[in-house]
Amino acid sequence: MRQVKANKILIIFLLILFIGCGNEVKKYEKTEFAFGTLIKIIIYEKDTKLAEKAANKAFEEIKRIDSNYNTKVENSLFYKLNNSKNKKIELDEEGKFLINKVLEVSKETDGMYDITVEPLLKLWGFYNKKNKLKVPTKEELKNTLKIVNYKNIIIEDNIIYLKNKKQTIDTGSFLKGYAIYKAREILKKEGIKSAFISALSSIELIGDKEGKKWKIGLQNPNNPSEILKILLIKDRAIGVSGDYQTYVEIDGKRYHHIISPKTGYPSDENKMLVIVSNNAFLSDMYSTALFSFNYKKIFDFISKYNNIEAFVVDKNNDIHISKGLKENIIEP
Q: How large is the average pLDDT for residues 156-176?
């Protein structure tokens, strides 16, 4: 039996609770398709024309980034890298910034964040739409792991190349978060003071909602239709990784898409990890990298940085909340 699924239920729900403060501030909402999913922008603003203009500009930016850098988009910069014979291309300034930041996080996490895992994702069937899926053999994993190593991504001036010509990269763990972070910056530049941007597992927030913190419902990873806890938050960003989001099903057993670059197997330490930081670009990368760590190691890692918090549901369904986040977690 084979089945490839992506959970259609949003990983995080926004609980829109109207706190009456007069009729001046209006809600403007717009949804568009990018990165293979629906992205929603909600703005609270007196001037609906301003809100519409700002949202349109934000979506233009999201689609620009998707088109220019997504490895799944033909003729994008990183698509060309993956498909070039010598695995060597010239980067523009933004592409160079993205790769340098990705490599920085890879080093910080001792290689637990590694965008060269694409061959492992292919091996497990996440790009397979036709053939019957099977669990990779130890030999297949061993051979594939040999070409997974972020240290083989080399940047010299404006040139990027992959030392191992069998390597490919995957932008899925960071580019969507980066895109909505840039969209947030555009909304702010346009004068928006209160907004919510959701791209499934990535969320950006501007300010608060009518004087109150935003209320974000955190899904129960064992039953995604239920809300486990509510996160009170403002002017921050969220990235979520979970074993229930995207997976393949082989002989009745699920194997999720967060593959350890060390073992080649789906990470089994946690069921869900929520990272709160100042931008979704970082939140997405850290939620992927730290998903393989136990909660103590996660908390030890984030303690080295300012303004990063974590909410963990481990493999035993125990909940662990970092110190700076505890007072902002309430019951649904």
A: 96
Residue in 91, 84, 108 with CA at minimum distance from that of residue 158: 91
Binding residues: 173, 284, 288
What gap in Å lies between CA 231 and CA 92, rounded to an integer? 38
Query: Strand ranges (DSSP E) for 184-222?
Result: 195-199, 202-206, 214-220
Q: Which residues are annotated as a binding site for Mg(2+)?
A: 173, 284, 288
What ranges in 115-243 are assigned the alpha helix state H?
A: 118-124, 138-145, 175-189
Q: Could you tell me which residues come within 8 angstroms of residue 245 by beta carbon, excluding any fewer than 6 positions away?
A: 6, 7, 11, 200, 201, 256, 257
φ, ψ (nearest 5 deg) of residue 312: -125, 135
> Tell me: the pLDDT tens digits for 254-311?
888 899 999 999 999 999 999 999 999 999 999 999 999 999 999 999 999 989 999 9
Q: How far apart are CA 318 and CA 332, in angstroms?
A: 17
Q: What are phi and psi of 88, to 5 degrees?
A: -150, 125
Which CATH number is 77-162's, of 3.30.365.10, 1.10.3980.10, 1.10.3720.10, 3.40.190.10? 1.10.3980.10
Query: Rounded to an integer, what distance in angstroms lies between the CA atom of residue 282 and that of residue 251?
Result: 35
Which residue type sits at 97?
A: F
Q: What pTM was estimated for this model as a whole?
A: 0.91
At residue 232, φ and ψ (nearest 5 deg) are -95, 125
Domain boundary assignment for the chain: 77-162
